[in-house]
Design a protein that fits this description.
181 residues, 7 helices
């Protein structure tokens, strides 16, 4: 599992470098989309499907906005020279972020051995042992989502709702502006 996540991180770094270094803006947008979808797969592998879904929705919305802005203005290439210092700084920052990600992955517990089993006072144990009694909910999932983690659930629902509204506003058939002849 660690090897697959490592390969996906390398894929994301290569995609980010392609997005930064290419002169074709449409190719840069596609490379940026590949980085986002690579991150969502990493979130799925790390057993965080809610973050993965949010990443995919926000990624699709951003890609639609960027592609529409690029194509509508005929801005498909970048002219001029790139700064050498900017390129070096980008590569160094990406490498530091990669090393930080590897260090974080080393600190995670092994897959299949959840952290709450090692800490008896963990909040997960409180949810499982006292959740139904404290909330009066019909089941433990409802108690956790709607009572203990209500603000988190509200935040995720707000992100999804806002993304859907943004996509509908961008992809609508008719615009409100009237075209003058």
């Amino acid at each position: 599992m660690f090897e697959l996540i490592f390969l996906l991180l390398i894929f994301c770094i290569i995609g980010a470098l392609v997005a930064v270094e290419t002169r074709d803006l449409l190719s840069a947008i596609i490379a940026l989309g590949a980085v986002g979808f690579g991150l969502s797969i990493i979130f799925l592998l790390l057993k965080a499907p809610d973050i993965a879904i949010t990443q995919i929705v926000v990624e699709i919305l951003c890609l639609v906005v960027l592609i529409r802005a690029t194509i509508s203005r005929d801005l498909t290439t970048i002219s001029g020279d790139r700064e050498f210092f900017g390129m070096i700084a980008t590569v160094v920052l990406l490498f530091v972020a990669f090393l930080f990600g590897l260090e974080v992955l080393r600190e995670l517990p092994q897959f299949g051995a959840p952290l709450f089993t090692k800490a008896p006072g963990a909040v997960t144990n409180v949810y499982l042992t006292e959740g139904l009694a404290k909330t009066g909910a019909a089941n433990i999932v409802t108690a956790i989502l709607l009572d203990f983690r209500a603000y988190d659930t509200l935040g995720e629902a707000t992100v999804l709702f806002t993304s859907i509204l943004g996509a509908m506003a961008i992809l609508r058939i008719r615009s409100r502006k009237k075209v003058r002849d």
